[in-house]
Amino acid sequence: MRIRIVDAFTDRPFQGNPAGVLLLDGGFPPDAWLQQVAAEVNLSETAFAHPLPPGSDADWALRWFTPAAEVDMCGHATLATAHVIAAAGLARGPVRFAARCGILTADVAEDGTVTMDFPTSSLTPLDPVPAVERALGAQAKSFHDTAEHIGDLLVELADERTVRELAPDHAALRAYARRGVIVTAPAEDPSRGYDFVSRGFFPAVGIDEDPVTGSAHTALAPFWAARLGRTELTGLQGGTRTGLVRVRLAGDRTLLTGRAVTVVDGELLAAP
């Protein structure tokens, strides 16, 4: 069984966010096997996809697993999967994925750029959460709940430097009952090619820090569009390892655009 590792939201190896990708011939193997493979790959997400019969609502069925759990939505592993399907010549034009969060579409351009159509996350202001501020080691400017689509806590911090220098207490964050915590701030110098910065911490699903979280940008897009007065923006996410996500807010949908590069192409010998 062929397995790839793809760096998503970058056009250079060893940047962006790596994802495992397995394209399956038939249906999904048992969940326990999928979880074991994801644990063995040990990246923030491993994507499993198989083609659907003609006439279905989507072209491919798609699932994502962290090393510890299945997740409802994942941007970078969807981008990686679309990149692999296009590179293998298995589809032309937009590809529709049937996932736990609904139908997602990914369109691979001639130059390899991938644009994904995801549901926009709603944002509900929250009162300050002192426990999260203590775990982050930083004072927040605002807190928002991202509700049903991704279930993260969005935390606005004072500036880019504060976001970059965070060294959170992951054990303390793990005790907070959400998928994860996204921290964000405006870019210090937008002339560098991005409008805002972010980092994502997801210890509750086995990921202390996710380098570039596409799904988080379905909340970051409306958050920064409201503050910056534009619906097309670019976000830079990551600590040591970073990637760029271009976003376009289109009402209840958010378009996420990025590049990808395959860095490993090999064989998985442990069949289900």
UniProtKB/TrEMBL annotation:
The keyword Isomerase applies. The keyword Nucleus does not apply. It holds the Pfam family PhzC-PhzF. InterPro entries: Phenazine_PhzF-like. Keywords: Isomerase. GO terms for molecular function: isomerase activity. Belongs to the PhzF family. NCBIfam families: PhzF_family. This is PhzF family phenazine biosynthesis isomerase. It comes from Streptomyces katrae.
